[in-house]
Amino acid sequence: MATDSAAAPAPAPAHFTGPSLSILEPVPPERCRWVRLGFEGARAELFTFDGACAQAELSWSHDGGKGAVLLAPHAEATERAWVVDFASGQGIELALPRPGYTTDLGFDPEGHPVALVSPEGMPTDDPSQPAVARAFLHDGEGWRLLESKETAYAGEGAGNHALDATRSLGPTTTLNGPEALPVTRQVEGGSADLAALGNALPHKRSGDGGQWVFAPTASGPLFSWKTDAAAPASCMPLRWYEGPKLAEPERLALPAEACFQLFLRDDVLLIASEQAARVYDLKQHKRLGSADKALKARFWPRPLATAAAATPTP
After folding, report:
1. What domain range is 284 assigned to?
2. What is the number of structural domains in the chain?
3. Is residue 42 in a domain?
4. Which of 144, 177, 223, 314 is deepest in the core (most CB within 10 A)?
5. What are phi and psi of 143, to 5 degrees?
6. What's the pLDDT at 312?
7. Is pTM, for the whole model, over 0.85?
8. Are 240 and 247 spatial neighbours (Cβ–Cβ below 8 Å)?
9. Which segments of the chain have a pLDDT < 50?
10. Contact at 8 Å (CB) between 197 and 204?
């Protein structure tokens, strides 16, 4: 990650002393590289796989020693998956359970891969009809059924995330963890905030194809524009208060139509757009670093407690 310190230390790709990011970097023509970037300049290229970064989801074991890549199906190809040992940098392709469509791949507290599988044909069949979601655990020799549950894949249905096994998974990009900062509160009509936004950005008015929303933080609100209330991401413009005035975070340098998700770890804010990552000290409103051509940016997860949760039975 490009740091904004005047005296950044020399890169140490295998050594991380502080917070870091997980990103995916495109490798032309059609490959993708999983990279860990440290705020202090360290960089580790973890694993390169065949496929487009935009179609990949990532997960980590509870102890942080392993990861997994789940590549969504595209064209005539079915989904693919790899388990990656971070210490050795070796990735082993993992055959997924069939039939069905694997939407999530993660690890249970013991480090076993767990796949959440929707019925064959989902979600292209009518998703409003109840269907049976299944969870499978790989015990080293093969997949075995861990759990099954009837659920809906549309409306208020939770799809595969209705499975109890979801709660046992380690960190994954398919689920918003505790560091995800939801931007769901609408700026109230007639408020001083809405007036300030209207004065600063007169071309953006709530009700005109979208609305102003905000995420509350200990350092004040973060305002952004949302066109789809149900979507997890919000879009540019992004503003916060610098004293009494609204301002864009310094050197944000994102396209005018860019959408992003926000993540907060302690006082560090991650702005993860579809193609870039920006990191800020939320208290000081200072940019700490940036990365371009960076997809699926997340904070590198901290190791979780490894106490085994109760295992659901089929």
Report:
1. 185-294
2. 1
3. no
4. 223
5. -85, 140
6. 43
7. yes
8. yes
9. 5-13, 124, 307-314
10. yes
